[in-house]
Amino acid sequence: MTGLRLLLALFSLAAMSCQRAPEWVLQGMQPDPLLERVLALFSQEDSELDPSAVRRRLQRLAATADARLQGLTTPRQRIQALNRFFFVERGFVADLDLADADNLFLDRVLQRRRGYCTGLASVYLMVARRLDLPVYGVTTPSHLFLRYDDGNHRINIETLEDGREISDATYRRQYHIPQISVQQGVFLRNLDEDRFLSQLVNNAGTLRSRAGEWERAQELYRQALELDPLNVTAHFNLARDQMRRQQFVLAVEGYSRALELHPDDPWSLNNRGVCRLRLGNRDGAVADFLQALSADPGFLEARRNLELLTEQKSPEQSGE
Questions:
Q1: CA 8 to chain centre
Q2: Which of its termini does the chain have fewer beta carbons within 10 Å around, N or C?
């Protein structure tokens, strides 16, 4: 190598070695793999997201929370202190508007200190992980809460009610969770990183669906299902979009898969019945509407659909 080429090569190597390291490295922070995956997801959905700012905010929250937990030894004392810090001192509150991305995206929930269940749980969980607390996401058919679980102590944390502890039995009654779904690990099971991320990906998909961005929504639902094949809501949402786009065969398959995981879900049964009717399967549609009403006698959509079918059939019967 000539002298000039050697000089250029050395300069290039020096330039590469002087590139600025990520901020969490410079501050001696340990990276959280789940946080980095969440930031990667939301960066695709939110062009204004600043990952460094999110890391700084979470680090400050965790540092202050850690001071509030000093001297507390039992799991319940520590969770109660973290709840007071998060919901009272810092003022994080519930906002049930599912159509507002501000209530889901991590940076916006941090900034506004409000979000729906998944948004609040994401922030709380990231802080708890920095404090080395064994906290996990837990799902029901239409809700996500948190749980402290160290193998000896289990404490449910309801983020929509300032961290109030609600029993699994209450969640089962409130959300009509069948025992088989619990046994299969579909609901009320501690979520690992993939399964928690699947919930966020699915919720990002719902925002795309609401905007009519069907292709991107479908990509997100499929990504959610790759992360967690037991994500019933992602199966349902994908099938619902396929139904809206008149892809009835695919929608029937999707609703059927959702029903394997969450039997007797009235909405899946009703919607599958509608798709079956559009495909000319009248008997299958009637069976689905009847099963939906058996699961929930007050389910108006299935009752109306069944009444419409009956009205259409009556003239045919009277003419025979």
A1: 51
A2: C
